[in-house]
Write a structure and sequence with these properties.
Blueprint (H helix, E strand, L loop, with lengths): L15 H6 L2 H9 L7 H20 L10 E2 L2 E2 L2 H14 L9 E9 L7 E10 L2 E5 L15 H6 L1
Antiparallel strand pairs: 1-2, 3-4, 4-5
Length: 155
């Protein structure tokens, strides 16, 4: 019998800053049986925003086209669409050539460890360059991109 992997990896990119600085936190969280987040609405809104972004990137659409629609069980608001559109505009500045490989909401794994897995929001690989973009839908939470452990994990 194979053990089923959790939806979010305990050694995933989104928590890389924590577990890289404190490897023992992974075992502690597992032992305490702590939930992924205390706020399921934040997670639902983030999932919906990611889905809108992915559909827009794949379908050459803008986020405002989803306002009022229900995506992943959440109604897309003007505020959500505005936030997603900022991400879309940044993603669309990445140079793309005919030989570029484009990845949107792409599952990643690493042979080095069975718990290294997750979903890459957006990457474009052209020649020796890889451009990685990660959408954050949290409200009021600043994330530094310089030397960002999550982006380095994906790279």
């Amino acid at each position: 019998m194979t053990e089923e992997k959790p939806l979010h990896s305990p050694l995933g990119a989104s928590s890389a800053e924590r577990w890289m600085n404190c490897p023992g936190s992974v075992a502690l969280i597992k032992e305490l049986k702590l939930p992924e987040t205390d706020e399921p609405d934040y997670r639902k809104n983030g999932t919906a925003a990611h889905e809108v972004a992915a559909q827009c990137l794949r379908g050459e659409q803008d986020a405002w086209e989803f306002v009022g629609l229900t995506v992943a069980g959440v109604e897309v608001t003007v505020e959500m669409a505005d936030a997603v559109q900022v991400y879309l505009d940044v993603c669309r500045t990445i140079p793309v050539t005919p030989d570029s490989k484009i990845y949107t909401e792409f599952s990643v794994t690493a042979q080095q460890h069975p718990l290294f897995y997750g979903t890459l929001d957006r990457a474009v690989v052209t020649g020796e360059w890889m451009h990685v973009r990660d959408y954050k839908h949290g409200e009021g939470i600043m994330v530094d991109v310089e030397d960002n452990p999550q982006l380095m994990y994906y790279a």
